[in-house]
Write a structure and sequence with these properties.
Number of helices: 12
Shape: elongated
Number of strands: 5
Radius of gyration: 23 Å
């Protein structure tokens, strides 16, 4: 037996202290940055999971928990739950909503535009410990323009595999995209060609059998 909070965390595979505090900091960074790094300690966290609490947590914990589980009250989160984690599906949830929830179960965040995404998830954080990078797109600016050549080289020399698939800068589809986005002719083509050459330049600097494909196009 444990708390409703425990079952909800099991649904998200966040039932360990490290996993929970990582998610806690991610939510806190969005809604209350000053609380990042101030998640629960081990003993407190496992009391939350067991439901062995005599009062609600500190206010900043409460605010982050409510942001993490917006459809639940604090009283519900710390109430006892004796069934399976999936038993906590709200009865009023429609069948179509349940299907949609399953389809988006692994979606963590949605950003209204590219700038907001980059602010929240800078390339330096996304790529710094990557062992495999596989990207497909038009110009792949996040890797080629916003991540330093020296860092790409460092990844390669540490064994990271990088595969990049660009839209053919000489093809018809990139010209269509330029028209759709209101660009002058050649803007996206030239940028894509520039980025391909940038990866080729890094590949030439790398020594050893480091797999880098900066020429694949579609």
């Amino acid at each position: 037996m444990g708390s409703v909070l425990k079952a909800l965390l099991q649904q998200r595979h966040l039932q360990t202290l490290a996993a929970f505090n990582h998610e806690y900091d991610r939510i806190a960074g969005r809604v209350e940055p000053e609380t990042v790094g101030h998640g629960p300690k081990k003993a407190q966290f496992y009391r939350w999971l067991s439901g062995d609490v005599t009062s609600l947590p500190y206010p900043h914990h409460c605010r982050i928990l409510l942001a993490m589980f917006p459809n639940w009250t604090l009283e519900e989160l710390f109430s006892d739950h004796t069934g399976e984690p999936l038993d906590l599906m709200r009865p009023q949830t429609s069948a179509s909503t349940q299907v949609q929830a399953r389809r988006t179960a692994d979606v963590e965040s949605i950003y209204p535009n590219r700038l907001d995404f980059v602010r929240e998830m800078p390339p330096q954080e996304i790529f710094k410990e990557a062992r495999t990078i596989e990207m497909a797109g038009i110009s792949l600016n996040m890797l080629c323009q916003q991540f330093a050549d020296s860092e790409i080289l460092r990844l390669l020399q540490s064994g990271t595999v990088i595969r990049c698939l660009f839209l053919d800068p000489a093809g018809t589809y990139i010209a269509q995209r330029e028209s759709e986005e209101g660009h002058d002719s050649g803007v996206l083509s030239n940028l894509t060609e520039l980025n391909i050459r940038a990866l080729q330049r890094v590949r030439r600097r790398a020594t050893g059998p480091y797999p880098v494909d900066g020429t694949a196009r579609y």
